[in-house]
């Protein structure tokens, strides 16, 4: 079953058995990027990060900053159409995977397991799909869910339709809104929170 288009309602529930949970309030995308750079300091080859959140929650921004923190070469963009990219780094490679449009069989076909031990692997939309395939039930991983405020909170369906004539971006557009980051640690490697 593929993830299909949708928002937060399409986000699978977390896997049971986490060792800890930590919730952080992030003001904007700069805070999201700062969290990624801090987390990068704790990551090493063999680490798996499952990155979850609705469309537009900041997953690609997070991964770009994580790559910067890992000193990975090249531009990081959403791998939506490629599904998987390897980015070479000074110390460790970053494997960036988007599992949004795949199922368990399709994920297995990507052969990510071949690189997981020598890379930091980030799987967007990988919750309940990538953990078992890459590290097994007894393995270790960090689950990070980014939760952006719902559009309904900004006016939603009851707001009157508007004609937009100014498409320039404001500072708020560039920084994005507040969001919540929920981190969960699984397995012996992540017995304590990294941040």
From TrEMBL:
Pfam families found in the cross-reference section: TsaE
Matches recorded under InterPro entries: P-loop_NTPase, T6A_TsaE
Keyword Transcription regulation on entry: no
Subcellular location: Cytoplasm
Keyword list, A-Z: ATP-binding, Cytoplasm, Magnesium, Metal-binding, Nucleotide-binding, tRNA processing
Gene3D superfamilies xrefs: P-loop containing nucleotide triphosphate hydrolases
Chief localization: cytoplasm
Record-stated family: Belongs to the TsaE family.
Its job: Required for the formation of a threonylcarbamoyl group on adenosine at position 37 (t(6)A37) in tRNAs that read codons beginning with adenine. Is involved in the transfer of the threonylcarbamoyl moiety of threonylcarbamoyl-AMP (TC-AMP) to the N6 group of A37, together with TsaD and TsaB. TsaE seems to play an indirect role in the t(6)A biosynthesis pathway, possibly in regulating the core enzymatic function of TsaD.
Protein name as it appears in the record: tRNA threonylcarbamoyladenosine biosynthesis protein TsaE
Native organism taxonomy: Bacteria, Bacillati, Actinomycetota, Actinomycetes, Micrococcales
């Amino acid at each position: 079953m593929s993830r299909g288009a949708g928002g937060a309602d399409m986000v699978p529930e977390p896997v049971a058995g986490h060792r800890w949970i930590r919730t952080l309030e992030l003001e904007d995308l700069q805070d999201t990027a700062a969290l990624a750079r801090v987390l990068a300091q704790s990551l090493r080859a063999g680490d798996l990060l499952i990155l979850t959140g609705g469309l537009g929650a900041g997953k690609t921004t997070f991964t770009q900053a994580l790559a910067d923190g890992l000193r990975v070469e090249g531009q990081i963009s959403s791998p939506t159409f490629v599904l998987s990219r390897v980015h070479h780094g000074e110390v460790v490679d970053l494997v960036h995977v988007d599992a949004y449009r795949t199922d368990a069989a399709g994920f297995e076909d990507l052969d990510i397991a071949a690189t997981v031990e020598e890379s930091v692997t980030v799987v967007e939309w990988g919750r309940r799909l990538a953990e078992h395939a890459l590290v097994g039930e007894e393995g270790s991983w960090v689950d990070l869910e980014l939760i952006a405020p719902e559009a309904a909170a900004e006016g939603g369906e009851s707001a009157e339709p508007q004609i937009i004539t100014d498409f320039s971006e404001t500072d708020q557009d560039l920084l994005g809104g507040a969001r919540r980051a929920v981190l969960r640690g699984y397995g012996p490697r992540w017995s304590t929170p990294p941040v």
